[in-house]
Specification:
By secondary structure, this protein is α+β, with helices and mostly antiparallel strands. Helix content is 28%, strand content 33%.
C-alpha cells in the first residue's frame, strides 16, 4: 500500500548543501509498486541514519517503470558517510523484496532559482512532478544560469500563464558528479503541476513555452548552446524525515 500522506519537500530550504537525485528502473507497474513498498519498509524499520539528512523523498514514475529518489543533505560528505555505514543494509532489504532493480546512477545538484505561483490558501495540489533534465553545449555554468534566468523572466512576464503550473525549481549540476544517465553538463527543473494531463496540454500547445507567445519564450526557443531536454513525470509517493 502507498505510504501515509506526507508533505512534499521544501526545495528552497537554505540548509540543503547537496540535493541528490537518482532513478531506478524496475520494469512493470507491479514491480514498481512492490519496490515503493519495499523502500518504505526499509526506511520505516530503521533509525534515522544521520542528523545531516534533512529529507529522503520517493517518487513513482507515471511510466509504470521508474522510481526517483531525491535526498536533501547538509553536505555531500555527510551523504558519503551514510553510503559507507548505513546505505547497504537498506539496499539489501529492498533487493531481497524486489530482485533485479536497475540503478541508473546519482547526481548532485544545487538549487539555483525558483518560480512559485502559490498564494496563501491556494487550493491546488501537485498531482504531477515533471522532472526536466536540460542539456547544454559545454560545461559553462554561466550559460545555464542565463537560460534559467530567461525562463523565469518568461514565466514572470507571461500575460496568460498556465493556471496549472504551481512551481518550478531550477538546479545546476555540481562539478565532479555524474549525471543520471550521461556525462553531459546539465541543469534540472523540478516542476509541480496540478496533473499530468495539464502538463502535457501545456507543452503540446502552439506556444514555445508553457504559456503565451512572447519575445522571451521565442528567445528561449532559439537560445544558443541549449541542446534540448528529457522529461520524466512522477507522482509524489512520500517523504521520509527525521522524527
Amino acid at each position: 500500500m502507498p505510504g501515509a500522506p506526507t508533505p512534499l519537500p521544501d526545495l528552497a530550504r537554505p540548509d540543503v548543501g547537496a540535493a541528490l537525485f537518482s532513478t531506478w528502473s524496475v520494469g512493470t507497474p507491479e514491480r514498481q509498486r512492490a519496490t515503493a513498498d519495499a523502500v518504505a519498509a526499509a526506511w520505516d524499520s530503521r533509525p534515522w541514519p544521520s542528523p545531516e539528512l534533512l529529507s529522503q523523498n520517493l517518487y513513482v514514475g507515471t511510466d509504470g517503470d521508474t522510481l526517483m529518489h531525491h535526498a536533501q543533505w547538509t553536505s555531500e560528505e555527510a551523504y558519503h558517510a551514510f553510503v559507507r555505514t548505513r546505505r547497504q543494509e537498506r539496499v539489501d532489504q529492498i533487493d531481497a523484496a524486489v530482485p533485479g532493480i536497475k540503478r541508473n546512477g546519482i547526481a548532485r545538484y544545487q538549487r539555483y532559482r525558483g518560480f512559485d505561483t502559490r498564494t496563501d490558501g491556494d487550493p491546488r495540489v501537485p498531482g504531477c512532478i515533471a522532472v526536466i533534465e536540460l542539456d547544454f553545449d559545454g560545461p559553462d555554468p554561466d550559460l545555464r544560469r542565463k537560460w534559467i534566468d530567461l525562463v523565469i523572466e518568461a514565466l514572470e512576464t507571461d500575460p496568460a500563464p498556465s493556471p496549472d503550473l504551481i512551481s518550478a525549481d531550477f538546479h545546476l549540476i555540481v562539478n565532479g558528479t555524474r549525471h543520471l544517465a550521461t556525462d553531459r553538463a546539465v541543469a534540472l527543473n523540478y516542476a509541480q503541476w496540478t496533473s499530468e494531463e495539464a502538463y502535457d496540454a501545456a507543452i503540446a500547445s502552439s506556444a514555445p513555452g508553457v504559456g503565451s507567445v512572447t519575445p522571451q519564450w521565442e528567445r528561449i526557443r532559439h537560445f544558443p548552446g541549449f541542446r534540448g531536454s528529457t522529461i520524466k513525470r512522477y507522482r509524489f509517493e512520500r517523504s521520509f524525515v527525521r522524527p
